[in-house]
Design brief:
With 140 residues, the protein is mainly alpha-helical. The chain is built from 7 helices and 3 strands, in the order αββααβαααα. Helix 3 (52-63) crosses helix 5. The longest helix is centred in the C-terminal third of the chain and has 17 residues, at 104-120. It starts with 5 loop residues before the first helix and ends with a helix. Residues 107-140 are annotated as: Disordered. This is Phage tail protein. InterPro entries: TAC_Gp13-like_sf.
């Protein structure tokens, strides 16, 4: 595999998108992967105790994009998005969470991948040297 240089990395088109059908609205909505900076902004800007509809509208404002990859909504649109069909908000938010690897489903998938990685390949050829942290703490 080729080792990439700076220009190749910065020029790579790596923001994936997915079009989600929304028959209730008469078309489809394009959900995009947030950039690193966009993800930081989304995650750091959230209050701890907000309503479900506000959280869903927030992730949708951060991830619904036009065909050119530009966000359709801003923070100022969150309240208006909250007034839309709750089932649609939930369905779109689920897609945004999945695409951006955010939320409980992403945590579960990461845990499953981690378990698979650990069971598939040991860092040591000897099982005795691969003691789990939980085994060590229970022996104290």
């Amino acid at each position: 595999m080729t080792i990439l240089n700076r220009d190749a990395i910065l020029g790579a088109q790596d923001i994936k998108t997915e079009d989600i059908p929304v028959p209730e609205w008469g078309g489809s909505v394009r959900i995009g992967l947030m950039s690193g900076a966009g993800r930081d902004q989304f995650l750091s800007g959230r209050e701890k105790n907000i309503s479900l509809s506000c959280f869903q509208a927030s992730i949708l404002a951060a991830t619904i994009i036009d065909p050119d990859g530009r966000r359709l909504f801003t923070e100022a649109d969150i309240e208006a998005l909250q007034q839309k069909n709750g089932q649609v908000l939930g369905r779109l938010a689920d897609a945004a969470f999945r695409i951006n690897a955010i939320g409980p489903a992403a945590d579960e998938a990461a845990a499953k991948n981690s378990e698979t990685d650990q069971s598939d390949a040991s860092g040591s050829g000897s099982p005795e040297t691969s003691v789990k942290a939980s085994d060590k703490s229970s022996k104290k």
